[in-house]
Every structure is written in structure tokens, then in C-alpha cells.
Amino acid sequence: MDKIQSDCPYPGCFFCVMKEANPSKRRASVLKYFRELPSQDDDGQVLPISGLWNTAMAHPNDPEFINLGIFECMASLIWKGLKNRRWLAHDQNIYIPYYAAHIIGSYTMNMEEFAERAVRAGVIPPLVELLRGRLTWVEQRVAVRALGHLATYPSTFPAVADHGEVLELAIQLASSSLEIVYSHFYQFVDRRLGYHCDLLTRGMGGVEMESRKAEEWASQLQCWSLQLINCFAFKPEFLHDICKPDFLVKLPGMWGGLVNENSPAGVGLLRTICQSKVGRGHVANIPATIDALCNIARSSDDWQYMAVDCLIWLMQDASTCHKVKDIVAPTLIDLSDISALGDYKKLGDTIVTVLQECMQQSGNSRGAIGVQTKSEIDELLRSKQSLKLEKSMPKEDLHIKQAAALVVKLEGNSLFSSGNIAGAAEKYSEALALCPMKSKKERVVLYSNRAQCYLLLQQPLAAISDATRALCLHSPVNRHAKSLWRRAQAYDMLGLAKESLLDAILFINECSQSNDPDLSLKQNKVPDYAERLVKKQMRSAWLFREAALKHGGVHCEGDASDAFGQDADDSEWETASESDAENDDTGEADDGTEWKNDGHREDICEKS
């Protein structure tokens, strides 16, 4: 029997066509279906198209529908939606341009051959119209995704670039996407378009789920716009258009949020820009961007290595080094004990080499280096020389140095417990000078303890520096719980919400996996002080925060709005050292216990 009998009332129904048992007849029927669909006005078209979208998502490398004309069909359907608003408003046709663009993006995601077929089928012009905002932000999201895939391949990039407005539109969208989604959807529940809500939740959720998904889609809209721009950034002729000062300042803050942690977002684009001499010249002229890159390079962000790449390339370029060295050098010094990161197998050695070259360039007037920066580099070079000397030092001498460092550390602990924080910091500095460079575990403790002193002395920059050094020395890197918590508090003092949030979350993760009774979560419960900091920083780092402030606050229900709105209680967060004073019971009391009325103070210093 050649085909399955069906009771379907619709002649030529796609699902009935796909049930055809004879492969040859099925392909002929599908080919006919794709050719005729754009000219038909029958009801129920959205159902087979959503089915095609599911197929494209599940099997993006399957050439069957590509060979049968799916790209031509989808391009025609998008044009139909753009030109025939009466048809678009009929039945459920409003969904069709969205699904059509999504299908194009899915089938061009992995295969350059498919992308070439799509370009020949004429998909770019209708996608560009969607990118312009001819419909809504929902269609912009899938259009920029599809164009980003087409721009990825060398053979199809020129076809995208021939539409000169694509780059400008992508830059505008990356800059304004969060505000667009907030003001056009998130802000007012009663104004949300029904088909937007259906697409966001697949009909499975209410207002709260719509809001959560809207934040995720807004992040994707921004990140996919950055991905498209990134394709242009590899071409020097487009860098002048990309590297506008206002855009470069914003880029480090485009991070995707917790809802889209798999995208390098703004720092990924900056890394591409910094691969080019022209790009580095533009970035080096924006101190705020350099500062932000330094913060990312020090952080526990998954894309830390990308920021490190940018800083190293800027320092290695003689035409930019003199502009950035006094900002960048302290960050690289803090990172000089990392053994491996990203593509770097010996990052510390690379940093030392870069800083040595920087010192050598400082002889001429253009390369003059600041006194403080020179002093810090000299200290680093001396420490690396000490490490080399220790390799030939008798073990007895190393043991003597270790013992001397331990004595001084204990003196620091005693001073700390008695309330002499500045004196304790000095003792930890003395202990670091005595402690062998190869005694990494002990140096982690000393840097971390001194970071706590700097916190209490209201010196957050120094605390961040020491906590970062402790995290770099620790094995595995960036996983020393106490240093993560201390740095989270220091970032909080400086108002760096994203960096504080990431460290606080990692601190909680480390506690959940720790065998240390002082750190492990009691009854699997997150400590109140850590929970409060995370909630505070989630409010401050919320993707829609800037848009909400601009447009008059939050006007809908849901987790994000609750966190940002009237429930916000910042009164207990005056300073990091005060906020967690009575709640930090991590054993070593690392995080700022308050002075007791009886003069007693809990010991916050590590004993090991």
C-alpha cells in the first residue's frame, strides 16, 4: 500500500504528506507543498510551520527539506507577512514570520552549504526587514539570530555585508534591546501581545513565567546582536563603524546576565576588536572600557580569559601600551600566579614577559611609566627571581623561612583578635615577605587574611587585589571560598554588582561542596548573609534595571520585579564589613564580625 489512509479534511495537509510511505512520492508532495504554501490563504497554516520549526531545531543538519525548497518557502512567507497585513492578522498567521525566520536560522546554524543555499534562495532581504523592526522585537530576535549564522561563514558573509544597514541595525539593537523588551513587553502586563506570551511560554505558564522568559529572550536578543557584530569585527574595514566611544563604553556591561551565561556577549566582541591593531587603538582611548576589562579579568566570570587576552594584547602593542599600562599593570600583577587560563598554559610567565617588556619601553618619554606601577612591577620581578633561587635552596633553609612566616602570621592573628587591624595587616605583609614563594597554600591564607584586614579598613581595592592573588594561587583557580566571599564584599563596597554577584554565587557553590565543617552548608541551607548579598546584587545587576529606572520602575509581578521593587531592603547593606558582621559563622569568621560590647572579637583569621 503506497500511502496511509487519512480522515484529514484538508487536501494536501503537510502532516498527511509526511505520512506518505513511498519516499519518492513524499518528496514530490513536500516539494509541491513548499512551492504552493506562500500563495495559499487557508486557515491552520501555522501548525505545520511550527512543526517544521521543531524539525529544524531537532535535525538542523538534515538536507531533505533544504533540497525541497524550504528556504524559498520561508522567505516568501516572511515577505507575505510584511506586505499583507490583512493576511497576517487572520487566523494565527501572526506567528508565521517568527517561525519562518527561526527555521532559516536553525538550518544555517552548522552547515555552510545550507547557508549558501539560503542566500541563493533570497532569505537575506526579508530577514533585514524584520531586523529593522517592521514587526516586533520577537521577530527581530530570530532575524538577528539567522543573520548572525549567515555572517559566520566566509562564503556568505559578503551577502550579509552587502546590506549596509545590517551592522548599524545590529549595533542599535545591541544597545537598546533590553529597553525595547522592557518597555514593549515586560513593563505593563495588560499590554502584552497574546502571541508574544504564547511564544514565550508555549501556553504553559502565567505572568511570572512570561516575565522570566522575556528576560531570557531580551538577553538573547542582545547577545545574538553582538554575535552578528562580531562577524563584522573580524574585518578591519568595519571597525571604525563598530568602535564608536559610546558603544565601547557600554560593551563590558553587556554580559548576558545569569539567564544567558553561555554567551561571551560584550567581552567576546571586545576580544575580537582587540585582535586588530586598529581595534586596539580605539579601545585604548576609552579608560572606562579598560577599567571594566580589568574588573572582568580579575573576576570569576567564565569569560575571564577573554578579558585577560585583551589586556595582554593592549600591553604588547607599543602603540597602545603607553596609554593603558598604569591601569592594566596592577591587574596583570594580581593574575601573575595563575598557571593556566583559557589558551594560556603558562599565563604567569606570559604576564611577567609582558611586564618586563613594558619596563624596557619606559625609557623613552612616550613610554614613561608611573612610579607606583614601576614599583609594583619591580616587586613582582623580585618575587619571580626569589622563586628561581628557592629551587637551589637547601630544604632546611626553606623550613626555617616557613617557620618564621608562621610565627609572624600568628602574631598577625593575635593583633587581629585584639582589634589592631592595621597592625595585623602589617604582620601578614611581613609573613608574605618571609614565606617561600613555593609555599602556595600558606600564601593563599596570608593574602586572604590580609584582604579581610583591608575590608575592615575600608580599602576595597586593596582587598580585591589580595583576594584575587589568593584565588590565583589556589588550586583549583578561583575556588578558594573565603577569598571569594571577601572579594564579593569588596566589590559590593565599590558598587560592582555583577562581579560581587558572581563571587557570592561561587562562594555558595564552594561551601556546598566543601568538607570543611566551618564552610559546609548547615542542613543544606545557604547562610543568611550570603543569601542577602546575592539578592541585593541580583537586584542591582538585573538586566532590566536601567530600563526600569528610565521608564518609571516595575509595573508587573514576578521574581525580578519583586527583587527590584518595593521589597528591596538596602538598609542592612551600608558597608560590606558591617552587613555580615553578626551572621558570618564560617568558622574563621572571615567576613567582618562586629566588635562586641565586651571587647571580645571572633577570630576571623585562618589558622592553617
TrEMBL record:
Segments traversing the membrane: none
Domain of life: Eukaryota
InterPro entries: ARM-like (IPR011989), ARM-type_fold (IPR016024), ARM_7 (IPR058868), TPR-like_helical_dom_sf (IPR011990)
Name this protein carries in UniProt: Tetratricopeptide repeat protein 1
Record domain ARM repeat N-terminal plant: where: 6-244
Record's compositionally biased regions (Basic and acidic residues): 593-608
Region called Disordered, residue ranges: 559-608
Pfam family, one: ARM_7
Ranges of Acidic residues composition bias in the record: 567-592
Signal peptide: none
